[in-house]
Write a structure and sequence with these properties.
Layout lengths: L1 E7 L3 H13 L2 E8 L6 H15 L5 E3 L13 H4 L20 H10 L5 E4 L4 H9 L1 H4 L4 E5 L15 H5 L1 H8 L4 E5 L1 H4 L3 E2 L11 H20 L5 E2 L1 H10 L4 E6 L1 E3 L10 E3 L5 H5 L4 E7 L1 H12 L2
Helix pairs in contact: 1-2, 1-10, 1-11, 4-5, 5-8
This protein binds alpha-D-ribofuranose and calcium ion.
Length: about 300
């Protein structure tokens, strides 16, 4: 069983990802670290605490960055609701962990408690940990990142995926650390779509009932605003990969992230030219290129319905 920290910005799909991680019983979750992203870090932290209490999961939460390493915080309230949780209000305990997210990550790596981080939000907390204790961060075996759009259009802009756009400086820096990185990009997350007709497939578990409420809210944006046939589950697929690598086929790629572009801020650019360029490329991540969408969606529904 992998011992992990989930670094996230719940956020509806982050919340669905946490549900999958908890209900799968395949991951030893040492903690949740929160960041700004889909909403403010205060709200992502409240949402993580409320969700874990609802799930009856005794998992510590450490609050992280409230803004990117440079620039202003982007907002996505139009997707996830004003409180970042489909405007559903659940009771929650107070923050249990005094450490910052980066200290919580560092301490759990130093003690050997974790070897993997699943990252489903901006990468600010991760680069703060690397800057603070680079030696200890070398103990991180795998960093699984939801982020990037290689051949797929962007989301928050024509070319940039949201997590990388929120803090491209962190994304570019993390992509050039030595830790093994796996990237779950929009190129595959947009291929595993949950349709309204799938909602009736969920069982009547306590988790499924909340998941369906969150998904119905989420689908309003993807169907009514974007005109899609349903919603993707980017963060849940990232957790799904951590649970079972077979859901995703990856390829080694050399990726950089634009930090200074007027129109390309946060864009992820892979070396795809081939020939002499392929020989000169320095692969820095295993990037998802194919997803077993039907198998993953089936697993997601079955697991949350338990
Ligand atoms: O691009 C998708 C990512 O942006 C997901 O992590 C979602 O939660 C949003 O933060
Ligand atoms: Ca997220």
């Amino acid at each position: 069983m992998k011992s992990v920290i989930i670094n996230c910005d719940p956020g509806i799909d982050d919340s669905l990802a946490i549900m999958l991680a908890v209900k799968s019983k395949k991951l030893d979750i040492a903690g949740i670290t929160t960041t700004f992203g889909n909403t403010s870090v205060e709200k992502t932290t409240d949402n993580a605490l409320a969700l874990l209490e609802y799930l009856g999961a005794n998992i510590p939460v450490a609050e992280g960055a409230g803004k990117p390493t440079e620039g202003k915080r982007v907002k996505a309230d139009y997707v996830h609701g004003e409180n970042g949780f489909a405007d559903i209000v659940l009771p929650h305990r107070s923050l249990s962990v005094p450490e910052s997210a980066e200290d919580f990550i560092i301490n759990n790596l130093e003690s050997g408690r974790i070897d993997t981080i699943i990252n489903t939000g901006p990468l600010t907390n991760i680069i703060l940990a690397f800057k603070k204790k680079p030696e200890i961060m070398k103990k991180l075996k795998t960093l699984i990142i939801m982020g990037a759009a290689i051949t797929e259009p962007g989301s928050i802009t024509r070319v940039a995926e949201f997590n990388f756009f929120c803090d491209p400086y962190a994304a570019e820096a993390v992509l050039h650390t030595d830790v093994k990185k796996v990237i779950i990009p929009r190129d595959i997350t947009q291929r595993a779509i949950l349709k309204p007709s799938d909602l009736s497939r969920f069982g009547d578990s306590k988790t499924a009932r909340l998941a369906v409420r969150l998904i119905k809210y989420y689908q309003k944006f993807y169907i009514n605003v974007l005109g899609l046939e349903g919603n993707p589950l980017p963060d849940a697929l990232t957790v799904g990969y951590a649970i079972n690598n077979d859901f995703v086929e990856t390829r080694e790629m050399d990726i950089v992230v634009e930090t200074d572009g007027v129109h390309t801020h946060g864009m992820s650019i892979a070396e795809r030219r081939g020939g002499i360029h392929e020989k000169e490329a320095k692969p820095n991540a295993s990037v998802g290129i194919k997803v077993k969408a039907e198998e993953f969606i089936d697993y997601f529904i079955e697991t949350l319905s338990r």
